[in-house]
Design brief:
Immunoglobulin-like, 5-stranded mixed β-sheet, 2 helices, Copper-binding protein, copper, EfeO_Cupredoxin
Length: 176
């Protein structure tokens, strides 16, 4: 059932992009990391560390509560069998970013469980995907993000690889 749901969501996402309705690259609300979501944090300012595990259609944990002004070190591990993203943003930022991620699939940068980093940023081959609020990982890879949450707001973390968000690969960040 999960596999069928994932395949259906992926096909829906691809049909959406092919229809020309996908948003163009760079259409983010204030860029990938607008002031509405905070800013990159500094190592010396980390208040706590949060472990994030990415599976093939969900995250562990599914939601986070963060204090306004807190700086979090996210230790992100891809425990799934596909390429996944951990991206901090607003729902509208994620919606805009899905078009860019579709472009990465269409240009062969993301192929199932393989990420062709050597093709990233090449003319006509999508974006570099090097924003401080996001990591893109192959199965078994781990990386860290240090992020400072400056505003009282509700955010999401999400995987915007085509079909992944639609299959449930997103979670909430409640900053109070």
């Amino acid at each position: 059932m999960v596999k069928t749901t994932f395949v259906t969501a992926a096909m829906t996402a691809m049909a959406f992009a092919a229809s020309g309705s996908a948003l163009a690259a760079g259409a983010h609300e204030g860029g990938h990391h607008g002031a509405s979501i905070g800013k990159p944090g500094k190592e010396r300012s980390v208040d706590r560390t949060v472990q994030i595990r990415m599976m093939d259609n969900y995250y562990e944990p599914k939601s986070l509560k963060i204090e306004q002004g807190e700086t979090i070190r996210f230790k992100v591990r891809n425990a799934g069998s596909l390429v996944h993203e951990f991206n901090i943003g607003t729902p509208s930022m994620h919606k805009a970013h899905r078009g860019e991620m579709m472009s990465m699939v269409q240009n062969g940068i993301i192929e199932g469980g393989t990420l062709h980093r050597d093709r990233m940023g090449m003319e006509g081959h999508g974006m570099k995907h090097d924003d401080p609020n996001s990591v893109l990982l192959e199965p078994g890879q781990s990386r860290e993000i240090i992020w400072h949450f400056s505003k009282d707001t509700n955010l999401q973390f999400a995987c915007n690889v085509p079909g992944h968000y639609q299959s449930g690969m997103h979670g909430s960040i409640n900053v109070q």
